[in-house]
Design goal:
This protein is α/β, with parallel strands linked by helices and 333 residues long. It folds into two domains: 186 residues, P-loop containing nucleotide triphosphate hydrolases (Rossmann fold), CATH 3.40.50; 72 residues, no CATH class. The protein is 32% helix and 22% strand. It contains twelve helices and twelve strands. The chain has an eight-stranded mixed β-sheet with strand order 6-7-8-3-9-10-12-11, sandwiched between helices. Strands 2-1-4-5 form a four-stranded antiparallel β-sheet, with helices on one face. Helix 5 crosses helix 7. The radius of gyration is 21 Å and the shape is globular. 39% of the residues are buried.
């Protein structure tokens, strides 16, 4: 891939299915996007829209007992990760690509000191051992601003606050200087003050290292403060992709508009909040056309067929999947 040097990660036509009561159903379909170096792409949508499944598919962590990638490629610096076996993926996870999970208390081992857990990634993926690995792990904890890191190096996860545990998770993710980090709602369980600190830390680390980041969240307020571009998902489909300022100023898909109207803002009365009627359809009962049509106030008969994701005529970098809103010639053809 000629652009691999500039695009550490490119997802192309990714489809992941799960088996439910003996039948296979697509949880995400034909998902395509790329992330450039020193760029943050926010992946947003309601719970059940496929955000975390997309991340787990990229990481090769879809449970094989009842899930599988059925189509598409995940190109990490031009190398397709989808056909790799578990042994090969273990060399890549935590090294070239890392993930910060939503709840650190369930991701950190409760019976191992946090310093040991940071050093473990270094011992596995690098030549560092013993005191060298310990020294590097301590430097990482200090880098993510864990107070009194040397004194707390041998403390256990339960002795840390939620915000500090999340910093430990970030240190583990950064240990081997990955090209890209996937952050799956890393601030959801934190109060707003600690959330702001973690977001500022991630932005600072991204700027320092030049890494790419995919930030998964349902909180559009978080998106505004950290993202460069936004990809909106609904019911397993990417329905809109745009630069962050463009998306907030000119949302095109009715679902994106509804999301923005459903969050509180300081410049708007609380009574102006508009909840989104209905719910995301389950993977076992997906409509054949636009997945949002049953909840959409703009639906037309053509919505019974699935619209393509196309760039707008006025701005090809702003893509939308909507028969009504997309005026691109390829849609009206």
């Amino acid at each position: 891939m000629s652009e691999a040097g500039e695009l550490p990660l490119a997802v192309d036509g990714l489809t992941t299915a799960f088996r439910v009561e003996g039948r296979w159903y697509d949880a995400i379909r034909d998902v395509s996007f790329s992330v450039a170096r020193n760029e943050t792409l926010a992946l947003v949508g309601e719970s059940g829209c496929g955000k975390s499944i997309t991340a787990l598919s990229i990481m090769g962590l879809v449970p094989k007992a009842n899930g599988r990638i059925t189509a598409g490629r995940v190109l990490l610096d031009g190398r397709d990760l989808v056909p790799l076996d578990e042994t090969e993926m273990e060399k890549i996870r935590g090294n070239a690509i890392s993930m910060i999970f939503q709840e650190p208390m369930t991701s950190l081992n409760p019976v191992l000191p946090i310093g040991f857990q940071v050093a473990e990634a270094l011992r596995y993926h690098t030549a560092l051992t013993g005191e060298a690995a310990r020294a590097r792990a301590l430097a990482l904890l200090e880098h993510v601003k864990v107070p009194s890191a040397a004194r707390r190096f041998d403390d256990y996860p339960h002795q840390f606050s939620g915000g500090m545990r999340q910093r430990v998770m970030i240190a583990i993710a950064l240990a081997c200087s990955p090209q890209i980090i996937l952050a799956d709602e890393p601030t959801t369980a934190l109060d707003v003050t600690i959330q702001a600190q973690v977001l500022a830390l991630l932005a600072e680390l991204k700027s320092e290292t030049g890494m790419a980041m995919i930030f998964i969240t349902h909180n559009l307020g978080v998106v505004a403060s950290i993202a460069d571009r936004v990809a909106v998902m609904y019911a397993g489909d990417l329905i809109e992709i745009a630069p962050v300022e463009e998306l907030f100023e000119h949302p095109m898909h009715p679902y994106t508009e509804a999301l923005l109207s459903s969050i509180p803002r300081v410049d708007r009365d609380a009574g102006d909040l508009k909840p989104i009627a209905g719910q995301v359809p389950p993977i076992t009962a997906m409509p054949s056309g636009c997945r949002y049509a049953d909840r959409c106030p703009l639906r037309v008969p053509r919505c019974a067929t699935m619209p393509p994701l196309v760039g707008l005529a006025v701005d090809p970098n702003h893509q939308v999947r909507c028969w009504v809103r997309a005026a691109d010639e390829s849609v009206s053809a």
